[in-house]
Write a structure and sequence with these properties.
By secondary structure, this protein is an all-alpha fold. The protein contains 2 helices and no strands.
Length: about 70
């Protein structure tokens, strides 16, 4: 007889919202990029910062009350 084990997920409650976490990641990437000389690593960090900012904007747009269906 096979016993089925249920694995409990290790979940962590997020303290900051997704938008706040994305904007924080963007700030950290930009701060780190400012300290670096021009090059591939700096360009990668700047791109990551732009992507995080765009993701935060998309999240805000998707979460806006105007997009929710009427009840």
């Amino acid at each position: 007889m096979d016993e089925q084990r249920t694995r409990k997920r290790n979940r962590a409650k997020q303290v900051l919202s997704l938008e706040e976490r994305l904007l924080e990641a963007s700030r950290n990437a930009r701060d780190t990029a400012r300290k670096l000389p021009p090059g591939k690593e700096r360009a990668t960090l700047i791109r990551a910062a732009r992507e995080s900012e765009a993701a935060a904007q998309i999240n805000a747009w998707i979460s806006s009350p105007r997009l929710r269906p009427e009840r």
